[in-house]
Specification:
The structure is a homodimer. In chain A, helix 2 packs across helix 10 and helix 18 (412-425) crosses helix 19. The first copy, chain A, folds into 2 domains: 3-254, Rossmann fold (3-Layer(aba) Sandwich), CATH 3.40.50.300; 261-491, Rossmann fold (3-Layer(aba) Sandwich). Residues 238-254 of chain A have low confidence and may be disordered. The first copy, chain A, is α/β, with parallel strands linked by helices. The two termini of chain A are 25 Å apart. The first copy, chain A, contains 20 helices and 10 strands. Chain A has helices at residues 13-35, 53-63, 79-82, 88-93, 109-116, 122-141, 155-167, 176-183, 185-199, 214-234, 248-253, 270-293, 310-319, 336-339, 345-349, 370-373, 379-398, 412-425, 432-457, 472-491, and strands at residues 41-47, 69-73, 100-104, 145-152, 206-210, 298-304, 326-330, 357-361, 402-409, 464-468. In chain A, strands 2-3-1-4-5 form a 5-stranded parallel sheet, with helices on both faces. Chain A has a 5-stranded parallel sheet with strand order 7-8-6-9-10, with helices on both faces. Chains A and B meet through helix 4, helix 6, helix 15 and helix 17 of A and helix 4, helix 6, helix 15 and helix 17 of B.
Chain lengths: 492, 492
Amino acid sequence: MFEAAELGRKVSKHEFDEREPDLHAGLLNVQRRLREADFPVVIIVSGVEGAGKGGVVSVIHKWMDARGIETHAFWDETDEERMRPRFWRFWRALPPKGSIAVLFGSWYTQPIIDRALKNIKTDKFDRQLERIRHFEDMLVDDGALIIKLWFHLSKKEQAKRLEADAKGKKGGKISPLTKSFSKRYDEFALVSERALRKTDVAHSPWHIVESGNARYRNLKVGQILLERITARLEQPAPSSGRVTVPSPALQKMGEPGVLDGVPLDSQYNEKTYRKLLDRYSDKLYKLAWEAHNRRINTVAVFEGWDAAGKGGAIRRVTGAMDARLYRVISVAAPTDEEKAHHYLWRFWRHLPRAGYNTLYDRSWYGRVLVERVEGFAREIEWQRAYNEINSFEEQLVEHGMVVLKFWLHISAEEQLRRFKEREQVEVKQYKITDEDWRNRARREDYERAVSDMVVKTSTEIAPWTLVPGNDKRYARIEVMKTFCERLEAALG
Amino acid sequence: MFEAAELGRKVSKHEFDEREPDLHAGLLNVQRRLREADFPVVIIVSGVEGAGKGGVVSVIHKWMDARGIETHAFWDETDEERMRPRFWRFWRALPPKGSIAVLFGSWYTQPIIDRALKNIKTDKFDRQLERIRHFEDMLVDDGALIIKLWFHLSKKEQAKRLEADAKGKKGGKISPLTKSFSKRYDEFALVSERALRKTDVAHSPWHIVESGNARYRNLKVGQILLERITARLEQPAPSSGRVTVPSPALQKMGEPGVLDGVPLDSQYNEKTYRKLLDRYSDKLYKLAWEAHNRRINTVAVFEGWDAAGKGGAIRRVTGAMDARLYRVISVAAPTDEEKAHHYLWRFWRHLPRAGYNTLYDRSWYGRVLVERVEGFAREIEWQRAYNEINSFEEQLVEHGMVVLKFWLHISAEEQLRRFKEREQVEVKQYKITDEDWRNRARREDYERAVSDMVVKTSTEIAPWTLVPGNDKRYARIEVMKTFCERLEAALG
């Protein structure tokens, strides 16, 4: 989920200075329009220690008119607060229609800390998240716009930041609490990821902001606020039902994102490849039998660009397993019967029983890839799908399945080269120019869809593996290796 | 929650025969229209043992065309089913667009049994309910109409029914399981009540059907199906957001309901009243101090007809307590500032801290009473409010508060008599004729609103007490007594 926020993105001082004035003017403008509107805005500022949440709050205040914006910081509960139900303090902080509240710390803070420090169990944590979702739903039903910001730093980046702070002028300011939290980076990451996943819904999504560079972070925040408030101002509340604010501009605002981080030039020579393939094939053969005996089954999803080598990778995996232990499902267009049901129905329908491996050549992710990009699903539909898919996979994992998800990534150039190669090799000629141009035109849309997909569905329980695919040998080994590692982990 | 389903309602054979043909024709007609529609219908048949769920399924089939309706009974899980996540069996049973599935037993069955038999804890039970809600939301988002029927029998009625069955022709058919479940009537009632409360949402509400009389039960089911499917056919899916089917006809279909069961002729003579008032006053004085010392606080809501004696009842309670320990809040129209927030905001705002008693003369229930009847809240808003209020009160109770809710009930005649009395007594004359006529005209609407309110918000943790108020003395003692009993129970 945090993959797209560890790419080391930066904004230069020059660029920042160039873009800031427009952003500032834009924010003042939406704030003026908001004053007449019949809904409030709640901005939640949360994220890892050291990500500069205080700086974010300052810059929001710098950009906005002080009339009509208020910040509430939630420290330890006061006596007054402890004497009332937990949400009392948050109700007190809710802004009236037409104004903005910035919540520095929020209803997420305590549950995440409690869970990361193991003061509460998962069931209780989940109940608290459910209450949060209920609470947010209620506010959104009533018209509120909730903008949820999560500021992220990688583990390395956080360590660096805290160290620098300790040495620098903020020396005295690092609290023992911050230190103790930063020591538990991994626990916090897992728990936060769960909190975000379970509360990331179409009508109040999370925005994960990479925070290694303050200028980048602040610009991003400004853009998110501008886009979301503008979109909400332009969409009046319908007479019934919940307002889901589409934010097409927001989709475009970002960078292609997570795919940028894939080291496409990774490769193996033939000799290394052969050696590794043999090693992992032997291993996988044994692991697959052991998994079968222990009734653990595997669901492996293969997605990727056309010609990225999905078929080849799948064949290497199945080649290493006893033929009785796997099934490959190629997902094509849905049948009429399937179309008459919820889009997940056909995947539930063919769900494997325990003890087997099912490899999907394309999958339920079609909903947020091809159906999104080609417009087969409406925005409200594919937006909902992230959460629906996470819940689906959660049920698989709870049932003891191992869920593997591979995105086979190749560059646009490599893809073109492979198309051309096929054109020469295959008897039936590809209409390569048409296809090629079509793909190139759509590539950017698909990259955005892939990036959103990974951010929203790469979870602690079912992470995505982004496979560098320009070198087919490297890609296949990467898939085999991941398969073995995940199975080994599941077998304990 | 089940109060309105224990009123002993019956339909005569004559009435049944008169009404059945229209219902039958109507159902065939909506079914024909449904065939062309782009949504499926899921009918959930659930409820207590002995309520005749099998009979309901039969009658539905009798009334409907066999093409396009299918029943799925969920018994013990098969091997095939156990090898997959729990919801697999339900996904398999989902109907395609244009058709109907009747689920005899459903995703509610196992969690309720598991919890009633204490095989799982509350946290786990709640997580399962959350998953159910998520699942139903997903189907509704996709267009499905879910009709959830709960067939209810009182404890006495159930015992009678099972005994009759045992003696009668069905002698051999009562399973040991049924017998063992019926022995745990109270546990099942509590657990079911929780399940219904947590999954009763505006877009897929529960219908609780009194089942003591088979003809009444079957007619009711027919009417519910007819109304809900018709309403859904007439409201096409909006381009975004969830479809909430308003069912005004359904509101009118029923009987005034739960208030019919209040024994309005209960009374005390002056001597008995004095004696009881002294006794409970002494008791309450002590209990209030003990509660204060143990930091338990009480939230008591007083609602009722105009002139039903709310003020008098409140004064008797406060008269029995140390003045430092209570506060009376009269809820009038909201201020401008309050109007600019969610309607619950003003109640959160004034939430008492621990160790005190707060008595509300009218309350948050205004949302589903006056605001509903007078049209100050839109249907979608007051429909949502039941669930929001339940969640609000749940948070109070979890924080250790005791929530008491009184509806002071008087007959229309008694109300008129009191108005006239006041007219004679008070200097400033009431415009009694206007008021009177207005009240009489609205009485039926209010009765319906009260009945819905009690059904949907009388919960295990915060039950309504319906107080017979034609005799003021009786009403006051009833309030005092309930206050003492609930406080005693809370103090253990």
